[in-house]
Amino acid sequence: LRSDAPQTNPTLTDASAPVVTAERSTRPRLRVRTALGVVFASVLTVVALVSCTPPGQSNAITGTNRPTPIAGATNGNLASSQLYTLNSNCQIYKPAAGSLAALIAAARYNGIALDTSECYRNYAGQVYQRNYWCGQGICANAATPGYSNHGWGKAVDFKVTNMPLNWTSFAYTWLTLNAGRFGFIHPDVVNEVWHWEWVGDGGQDHGDPVALDLRTWPMTQGANGTDVKSIQQSLNWWGANLTVDGAFGPLTGWWVGVFQSSHGLSVSGTVDLNTALKLGFH
Ligand SMILES: [Zn+2]
User: Fold this and answer.
1) Helix residue ranges per DSSP H, the chain
2) How far apart are CA 101 and CA 96, in angstroms?
3) Is the pLDDT of residue 270 over 70?
4) Mean pLDDT score, 213-230
5) Count of CB atoms within 10 A of residue 139's CB?
Protein backbone atom coordinates (compact mmCIF):
# COMPACT_ATOMS: atom_id res chain seq x y z
CA LEU A 1 0.00 0.00 0.00
CA ARG A 2 1.46 3.33 -1.02
CA SER A 3 1.52 6.13 1.48
CA ASP A 4 1.03 9.81 0.84
CA ALA A 5 4.74 10.44 1.26
CA PRO A 6 6.36 12.63 -1.38
CA GLN A 7 6.11 10.86 -4.67
CA THR A 8 8.90 9.67 -6.86
CA ASN A 9 7.90 11.50 -10.03
CA PRO A 10 9.53 14.95 -9.92
CA THR A 11 7.60 16.14 -12.96
CA LEU A 12 4.31 15.87 -11.11
CA THR A 13 5.68 17.74 -8.12
CA ASP A 14 6.95 20.59 -10.26
CA ALA A 15 3.74 20.82 -12.21
CA SER A 16 1.20 20.59 -9.46
CA ALA A 17 2.29 21.17 -5.92
CA PRO A 18 3.57 24.78 -6.06
CA VAL A 19 0.44 25.98 -7.82
CA VAL A 20 -1.89 24.47 -5.28
CA THR A 21 0.15 25.72 -2.37
CA ALA A 22 0.23 29.29 -3.64
CA GLU A 23 -3.48 29.27 -4.27
CA ARG A 24 -4.36 27.81 -0.92
CA SER A 25 -2.48 30.34 1.11
CA THR A 26 -4.63 33.20 -0.14
CA ARG A 27 -7.97 31.55 0.57
CA PRO A 28 -10.05 30.89 3.64
CA ARG A 29 -10.07 27.24 4.57
CA LEU A 30 -12.87 24.76 4.59
CA ARG A 31 -15.63 27.25 4.17
CA VAL A 32 -18.75 26.91 2.06
CA ARG A 33 -18.69 29.42 -0.72
CA THR A 34 -21.35 30.83 -2.97
CA ALA A 35 -21.56 29.46 -6.49
CA LEU A 36 -20.11 32.72 -7.79
CA GLY A 37 -17.21 32.45 -5.42
CA VAL A 38 -16.53 28.93 -6.59
CA VAL A 39 -16.50 30.03 -10.20
CA PHE A 40 -14.28 33.01 -9.44
CA ALA A 41 -11.85 30.81 -7.57
CA SER A 42 -11.93 28.39 -10.50
CA VAL A 43 -10.82 31.26 -12.72
CA LEU A 44 -7.81 31.85 -10.48
CA THR A 45 -6.99 28.16 -10.34
CA VAL A 46 -7.21 27.66 -14.08
CA VAL A 47 -5.17 30.78 -14.80
CA ALA A 48 -2.52 29.64 -12.35
CA LEU A 49 -2.42 26.12 -13.76
CA VAL A 50 -2.17 27.32 -17.34
CA SER A 51 0.51 29.90 -16.61
CA CYS A 52 2.61 27.47 -14.58
CA THR A 53 2.49 24.47 -16.91
CA PRO A 54 6.09 23.76 -17.79
CA PRO A 55 6.95 23.65 -21.49
CA GLY A 56 7.07 20.18 -22.95
CA GLN A 57 4.31 18.75 -20.79
CA SER A 58 1.74 17.08 -22.96
CA ASN A 59 -1.66 18.66 -22.42
CA ALA A 60 -4.66 17.12 -24.14
CA ILE A 61 -6.94 19.99 -23.15
CA THR A 62 -6.27 22.54 -25.86
CA GLY A 63 -8.51 24.14 -28.45
CA THR A 64 -6.45 22.64 -31.25
CA ASN A 65 -6.78 19.01 -30.13
CA ARG A 66 -9.44 16.81 -31.75
CA PRO A 67 -10.85 13.36 -31.00
CA THR A 68 -9.36 10.29 -32.63
CA PRO A 69 -11.31 7.98 -34.92
CA ILE A 70 -12.15 4.61 -33.40
CA ALA A 71 -9.94 1.86 -34.76
CA GLY A 72 -11.86 -0.79 -36.63
CA ALA A 73 -15.09 1.20 -36.66
CA THR A 74 -16.83 3.31 -39.29
CA ASN A 75 -17.87 6.89 -38.59
CA GLY A 76 -21.61 7.07 -38.08
CA ASN A 77 -21.94 3.31 -37.92
CA LEU A 78 -20.80 2.38 -34.40
CA ALA A 79 -22.02 -0.79 -32.77
CA SER A 80 -24.52 -0.27 -29.97
CA SER A 81 -22.02 -2.00 -27.66
CA GLN A 82 -19.63 0.93 -28.22
CA LEU A 83 -22.18 3.48 -27.05
CA TYR A 84 -23.70 4.37 -23.70
CA THR A 85 -27.21 5.79 -23.64
CA LEU A 86 -27.01 8.72 -21.24
CA ASN A 87 -30.55 9.91 -21.90
CA SER A 88 -33.17 9.92 -24.66
CA ASN A 89 -31.19 12.40 -26.79
CA CYS A 90 -27.62 11.39 -26.05
CA GLN A 91 -25.66 8.27 -26.85
CA ILE A 92 -21.97 8.73 -26.12
CA TYR A 93 -18.83 6.70 -26.79
CA LYS A 94 -18.67 4.46 -23.73
CA PRO A 95 -15.25 5.49 -22.38
CA ALA A 96 -16.46 9.13 -22.33
CA ALA A 97 -19.80 8.45 -20.66
CA GLY A 98 -18.72 8.73 -17.04
CA SER A 99 -16.86 11.97 -17.66
CA LEU A 100 -19.84 13.49 -19.47
CA ALA A 101 -22.18 12.52 -16.64
CA ALA A 102 -19.76 14.00 -14.11
CA LEU A 103 -19.42 17.23 -16.12
CA ILE A 104 -23.19 17.63 -16.24
CA ALA A 105 -23.47 16.90 -12.52
CA ALA A 106 -20.78 19.46 -11.70
CA ALA A 107 -22.48 22.13 -13.81
CA ARG A 108 -25.80 21.50 -12.10
CA TYR A 109 -24.09 21.64 -8.73
CA ASN A 110 -22.96 25.14 -9.73
CA GLY A 111 -26.50 26.14 -10.72
CA ILE A 112 -26.26 25.62 -14.48
CA ALA A 113 -28.98 23.35 -15.88
CA LEU A 114 -26.64 21.74 -18.39
CA ASP A 115 -28.18 19.12 -20.66
CA THR A 116 -27.50 17.47 -23.99
CA SER A 117 -29.37 18.00 -27.25
CA GLU A 118 -27.40 15.46 -29.28
CA CYS A 119 -24.27 13.32 -28.95
CA TYR A 120 -23.68 10.36 -31.27
CA ARG A 121 -25.03 11.01 -34.76
CA ASN A 122 -25.25 8.16 -37.24
CA TYR A 123 -24.45 8.56 -40.93
CA ALA A 124 -28.03 9.26 -41.97
CA GLY A 125 -28.27 11.88 -39.26
CA GLN A 126 -25.10 13.52 -40.53
CA VAL A 127 -26.54 13.69 -44.06
CA TYR A 128 -29.69 15.27 -42.65
CA GLN A 129 -27.73 17.88 -40.65
CA ARG A 130 -25.46 18.72 -43.59
CA ASN A 131 -28.43 19.27 -45.88
CA TYR A 132 -30.19 21.35 -43.26
CA TRP A 133 -27.26 23.71 -42.64
CA CYS A 134 -26.32 23.99 -46.31
CA GLY A 135 -29.93 24.95 -46.91
CA GLN A 136 -29.40 27.76 -44.40
CA GLY A 137 -26.27 28.82 -46.29
CA ILE A 138 -24.01 27.70 -43.38
CA CYS A 139 -22.57 24.39 -44.59
CA ALA A 140 -19.72 24.78 -42.09
CA ASN A 141 -22.10 24.11 -39.18
CA ALA A 142 -22.18 20.41 -40.12
CA ALA A 143 -19.26 18.24 -41.12
CA THR A 144 -19.17 16.36 -44.38
CA PRO A 145 -21.08 13.13 -43.65
CA GLY A 146 -18.65 10.46 -42.50
CA TYR A 147 -16.25 12.99 -40.97
CA SER A 148 -18.22 14.37 -38.01
CA ASN A 149 -16.91 13.76 -34.51
CA HIS A 150 -20.54 13.13 -33.63
CA GLY A 151 -20.11 10.03 -35.80
CA TRP A 152 -17.56 8.68 -33.32
CA GLY A 153 -19.78 9.44 -30.33
CA LYS A 154 -17.12 11.90 -29.16
CA ALA A 155 -18.93 15.18 -29.76
CA VAL A 156 -21.70 16.63 -27.60
CA ASP A 157 -24.10 19.42 -28.43
CA PHE A 158 -25.08 21.00 -25.13
CA LYS A 159 -28.09 23.02 -24.15
CA VAL A 160 -28.74 24.95 -20.96
CA THR A 161 -32.32 25.23 -19.87
CA ASN A 162 -32.15 27.91 -17.16
CA MET A 163 -29.86 30.55 -18.68
CA PRO A 164 -28.40 31.56 -22.05
CA LEU A 165 -25.63 29.61 -23.73
CA ASN A 166 -23.75 32.03 -25.96
CA TRP A 167 -20.17 33.25 -26.34
CA THR A 168 -20.49 35.85 -23.58
CA SER A 169 -22.72 33.94 -21.19
CA PHE A 170 -21.96 32.63 -17.72
CA ALA A 171 -22.72 29.08 -18.83
CA TYR A 172 -20.15 29.20 -21.64
CA THR A 173 -17.56 30.74 -19.34
CA TRP A 174 -18.18 27.98 -16.82
CA LEU A 175 -17.71 25.36 -19.51
CA THR A 176 -14.47 26.88 -20.74
CA LEU A 177 -13.15 26.80 -17.16
CA ASN A 178 -14.39 23.39 -16.15
CA ALA A 179 -15.06 21.08 -19.11
CA GLY A 180 -11.35 20.34 -19.49
CA ARG A 181 -11.27 18.66 -16.10
CA PHE A 182 -13.63 16.09 -17.59
CA GLY A 183 -11.74 15.71 -20.87
CA PHE A 184 -13.96 17.99 -22.95
CA ILE A 185 -12.77 20.88 -25.14
CA HIS A 186 -14.36 23.43 -27.40
CA PRO A 187 -12.42 23.14 -30.68
CA ASP A 188 -11.06 26.45 -31.94
CA VAL A 189 -12.28 25.77 -35.46
CA VAL A 190 -15.89 25.16 -34.44
CA ASN A 191 -18.13 28.23 -34.42
CA GLU A 192 -21.06 26.64 -32.58
CA VAL A 193 -21.00 27.55 -28.91
CA TRP A 194 -22.86 24.37 -27.96
CA HIS A 195 -20.52 21.91 -29.70
CA TRP A 196 -17.89 20.27 -27.43
CA GLU A 197 -15.65 17.30 -28.05
CA TRP A 198 -14.14 14.60 -25.84
CA VAL A 199 -10.34 14.19 -25.91
CA GLY A 200 -10.08 12.61 -22.47
CA ASP A 201 -8.11 9.71 -23.96
CA GLY A 202 -5.47 12.20 -25.14
CA GLY A 203 -7.02 12.86 -28.53
CA GLN A 204 -5.08 13.33 -31.75
CA ASP A 205 -2.40 15.23 -29.82
CA HIS A 206 -1.73 12.12 -27.71
CA GLY A 207 -1.83 14.32 -24.62
CA ASP A 208 -2.11 13.19 -21.04
CA PRO A 209 -5.43 11.39 -20.51
CA VAL A 210 -8.04 13.22 -18.48
CA ALA A 211 -10.67 10.96 -17.03
CA LEU A 212 -12.97 11.51 -14.13
CA ASP A 213 -15.20 8.56 -14.39
CA LEU A 214 -18.25 7.92 -12.25
CA ARG A 215 -17.59 4.24 -12.58
CA THR A 216 -14.45 4.60 -10.47
CA TRP A 217 -16.48 5.80 -7.49
CA PRO A 218 -16.60 5.29 -4.61
CA MET A 219 -12.89 5.98 -4.52
CA THR A 220 -11.07 4.66 -1.52
CA GLN A 221 -7.62 3.89 -0.16
CA GLY A 222 -5.47 1.96 -2.57
CA ALA A 223 -6.84 3.73 -5.66
CA ASN A 224 -4.33 5.17 -8.09
CA GLY A 225 -4.41 7.41 -11.12
CA THR A 226 -5.73 10.56 -12.71
CA ASP A 227 -9.02 10.50 -10.81
CA VAL A 228 -7.16 10.45 -7.50
CA LYS A 229 -5.06 13.42 -8.61
CA SER A 230 -8.25 15.36 -9.33
CA ILE A 231 -9.54 14.56 -5.86
CA GLN A 232 -6.22 15.53 -4.23
CA GLN A 233 -6.17 18.84 -6.12
CA SER A 234 -9.73 19.46 -4.99
CA LEU A 235 -8.88 18.71 -1.37
CA ASN A 236 -5.89 21.08 -1.58
CA TRP A 237 -8.12 23.79 -2.97
CA TRP A 238 -10.30 23.32 0.09
CA GLY A 239 -7.37 23.52 2.48
CA ALA A 240 -5.47 20.23 2.52
CA ASN A 241 -1.74 20.09 1.79
CA LEU A 242 -1.46 16.80 -0.05
CA THR A 243 1.16 15.93 -2.59
CA VAL A 244 -0.76 15.46 -5.83
CA ASP A 245 0.68 12.08 -6.73
CA GLY A 246 -2.42 10.14 -7.74
CA ALA A 247 -2.00 7.62 -4.92
CA PHE A 248 -4.92 7.41 -2.47
CA GLY A 249 -3.13 6.73 0.82
CA PRO A 250 -4.09 7.15 4.49
CA LEU A 251 -3.35 10.90 4.49
CA THR A 252 -5.63 11.47 1.51
CA GLY A 253 -8.30 9.46 3.30
CA TRP A 254 -7.84 11.56 6.43
CA TRP A 255 -8.33 14.80 4.48
CA VAL A 256 -11.41 13.36 2.81
CA GLY A 257 -12.79 12.78 6.30
CA VAL A 258 -11.95 16.34 7.36
CA PHE A 259 -13.69 17.68 4.28
CA GLN A 260 -16.74 15.49 4.88
CA SER A 261 -16.91 16.50 8.52
CA SER A 262 -16.83 20.21 7.69
CA HIS A 263 -19.46 19.90 4.95
CA GLY A 264 -22.16 18.00 6.76
CA LEU A 265 -21.40 14.70 5.07
CA SER A 266 -21.10 11.40 6.85
CA VAL A 267 -17.41 10.81 7.53
CA SER A 268 -16.12 7.75 5.72
CA GLY A 269 -12.79 8.82 4.23
CA THR A 270 -14.13 7.42 0.98
CA VAL A 271 -15.03 9.65 -1.98
CA ASP A 272 -18.58 8.79 -2.93
CA LEU A 273 -20.66 10.75 -5.42
CA ASN A 274 -21.99 13.24 -2.86
CA THR A 275 -18.50 13.95 -1.60
CA ALA A 276 -17.17 14.36 -5.13
CA LEU A 277 -19.93 16.81 -6.03
CA LYS A 278 -19.28 18.84 -2.88
CA LEU A 279 -15.59 18.90 -3.69
CA GLY A 280 -16.59 20.47 -6.99
CA PHE A 281 -13.69 18.83 -8.84
CA HIS A 282 -11.41 21.80 -8.40
ZN1 LIG B 1 -22.19 19.38 -32.76
Assistant:
1) 10-25, 35-52, 94-109, 123-135, 170-178, 226-237, 250-262, 273-279
2) 9
3) yes
4) 77
5) 13
